[in-house]
């Protein structure tokens, strides 16, 4: 790759002015076997650069235990092979509608640690993580023949805090670890955000979806010199469970993109291709203007109404953007790559084995604890999954309301083995009172940790207590089931025949495929849970919508028999039909 520098008025490569026409593509949301196709799609749209975040929690599940950090380097190699530049946004906080904004739950749950500040314990953790991560980035910088031209310091920090000394620490750490590429920050185009999130001597960029001239005028009040760049042009948006599907008119979005380019600015499409939050890694937001309201969990699909859709197909927005970008690209644009293979024919899964949630917990769960008050997920080492809390209501006593304080996020409640209802943060009290003596079990599920706003980093589980009338119930037994426990397989689970009626639990079976390729999985009649095919976690399904099926990348499937696991976390329709694979 050519040498790349940042000048007073623009970007330069080999002594000539260049414009970054970039698009976000998250390597961790695309099956590795499909990276090449997606990069070729971006090139065909007219882009010369790719941007990606790096989610810390995906790669360091426990302190000092690293998992496939090499994927970052392999992706950057793929970017270079595609003849494109790369912008890397390593965080440590990334937002990205990703679980906990990319920070490990074990870190934000660590007592005494203040994330996203100059807190010494936090910075020590960041330093150790960057020491490992930057081995994948530093050798792949443009001044060493690689594709990396920009490295971002933190992410939208001005939307969160004002500790610019923290940003200085991060910038110094990046430099100390060998980052010679230009550093940048990105924030909303508002005075308080740019004041809190930018650094002297570091390229400042802005994020917005429209009104480019106004945004760049605001940036110029803070930075008289330096290239203009929109680091996140929000050309679509994300969806929440229980909400609607967000769309943006392609012609209107193309007009907003044209305005950015007419300002002489560089741009990064957020997103060019969104992909999928496989593995239950989707995050959550808090509603309201101050992002402090009701929980709004993000769906598994990260399609984002992007120009390249979740399945890697060009959309009308792709065609409109291509027309706009063609005017800013020397020479003709590359043609579209051949489309990925698509499932040859519909196929129905046969689920022949079943184990109750209690049996799955016994086989794959962590150790049980007995504490006076309920421990939160972080204390039990649970990142994504659920915790069973069990407590005794003393007796004899008359029926009283049973409620939970500080519930995050959803609990299916059983009283003496019988399902008694579902509790949420908004409705934390059972409809029917409970008499003593009774055994109460609450299967509490995390719906995704908050990834943006002042409540970022909040714990999961029962964060207050379990109340019978006004009395706290003490002596709580808790045991967690983390989704990572399924990575080793389910051989230890004692499967039997499925029950006569649809019930929560782990279902095991197979689906026979003829013509392996991209597919979508439908689970009609089921309420909420997770699905694995051949050990690959497709993510959460939920009848709340708007998402109605799960994307199955073609490389996950194989000709013939494929193993399927369905973890149902609540009751579904009694006559729920078998899951079925359909061509995309």
TrEMBL record:
InterPro entries: B-gal_1-like (IPR026283), BetaGal1-like_ABD1 (IPR048912), BetaGal_gal-bd (IPR048913), Galactose-bd-like_sf (IPR008979), GH (IPR017853), Gly_Hdrlase_35_cat (IPR031330), Glyco_hydro_35_CS (IPR019801), Glycoside_Hdrlase_35 (IPR001944). Residues 11-327 form the Glycoside hydrolase 35 catalytic domain. Gene3D superfamilies: Galactose-binding domain-like, Glycosidases. Residues 504-562 form the Beta-galactosidase galactose-binding domain. Residues 374-475 form the Beta-galactosidase 1-like first all-beta domain. It comes from the Bacteria. Transmembrane segments: none annotated. It holds the Pfam family BetaGal_gal-bd. Belongs to the glycosyl hydrolase 35 family. This is Beta-galactosidase.
């Amino acid at each position: 790759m050519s040498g790349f520098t940042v000048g007073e008025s623009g970007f330069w490569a080999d002594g000539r002015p260049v414009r970054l026409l970039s698009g976000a593509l998250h390597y961790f949301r695309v099956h590795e076997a499909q990276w090449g196709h997606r990069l070729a799609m971006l090139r065909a749209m007219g882009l010369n650069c790719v941007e990606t975040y790096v989610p810390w929690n995906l790669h360091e599940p426990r302190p000092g235990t690293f998992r496939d950090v090499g994927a970052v380097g392999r992706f950057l190699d793929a970017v270079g092979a595609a003849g494109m530049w790369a912008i890397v946004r390593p965080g440590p906080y990334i937002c990205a509608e990703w679980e906990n904004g990319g920070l490990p739950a074990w870190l934000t749950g660590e007592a005494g640690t203040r994330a996203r500040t100059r807190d010494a314990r936090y910075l020590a953790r960041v330093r150790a993580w960057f020491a490992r991560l930057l081995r994948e980035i530093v050798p792949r910088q443009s001044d060493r023949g690689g594709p990396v031209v920009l490295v971002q310091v933190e992410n939208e920090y001005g939307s969160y805090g004002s500790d610019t000394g923290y940003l200085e620490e991060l910038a110094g750490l990046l430099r100390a670890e060998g980052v010679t590429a230009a550093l940048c920050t990105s924030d909303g185009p508002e005075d308080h955000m740019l004041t809190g999130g930018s650094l002297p001597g570091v390229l400042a960029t802005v994020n917005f979806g429209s009104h480019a001239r106004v945004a760049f005028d605001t940036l110029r009040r803070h930075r008289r010199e330096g290239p203009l760049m929109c680091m996140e042009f929000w050309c679509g948006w994300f969806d929440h469970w229980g909400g609607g599907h967000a769309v943006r008119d392609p012609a209107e979005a193309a007009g907003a993109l044209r305005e950015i380019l007419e300002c002489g600015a560089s741009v990064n499409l957020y997103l060019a291709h969104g992909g999928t939050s496989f593995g239950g890694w989707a995050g959550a937001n808090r509603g309201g203007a101050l992002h402090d309201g009701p929980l709004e969990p993000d769906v598994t699909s990260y399609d984002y109404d992007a120009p390249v859709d979740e399945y890697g197909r060009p959309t009308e927005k792709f065609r409109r953007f291509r027309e706009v970008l063609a005017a800013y690209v020397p020479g003709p644009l590359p043609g579209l790559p051949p489309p990925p293979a698509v499932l040859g024919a519909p196929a129905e899964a046969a689920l022949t084995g079943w184990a109750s949630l209690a049996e799955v917990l016994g086989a794959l769960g962590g150790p049980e604890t007995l504490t006076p008050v309920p421990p939160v997920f972080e204390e039990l080492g649970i990142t994504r999954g659920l915790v069973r809390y069990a407590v005794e209501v003393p007796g004899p006593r008359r029926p009283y309301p049973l409620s939970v304080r500080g519930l995050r996020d959803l609990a299916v409640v059983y009283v003496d083995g019988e399902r008694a209802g579902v509790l949420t943060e908004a409705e934390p009290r059972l409809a029917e009172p409970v008499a003593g003596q009774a055994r109460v079990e609450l299967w509490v599920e995390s719906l995704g940790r908050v990834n943006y706003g002042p409540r970022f980093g909040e714990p999961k589980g029962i964060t207050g207590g379990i109340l019978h009338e006004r009395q706290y119930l003490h002596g709580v037994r808790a045991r967690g089931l983390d989704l990572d426990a399924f990575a080793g397989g389910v051989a230890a689970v004692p499967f039997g025949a499925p029950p006569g009626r649809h019930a929560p639990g782990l279902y095991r079976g197979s689906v026979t495929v003829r013509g392996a390729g991209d597919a979508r999985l439908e689970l009609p009649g089921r309420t909420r849970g997770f699905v694995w095919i051949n050990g690959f976690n497709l993510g959460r399904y939920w009848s709340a919508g708007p998402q109605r099926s799960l994307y199955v990348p073609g490389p996950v499937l194989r000709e013939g028999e494929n193993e399927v696991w369905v973890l149902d976390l609540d009751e579904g329709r009694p006559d729920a039909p078998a899951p079925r694979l359909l061509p995309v």
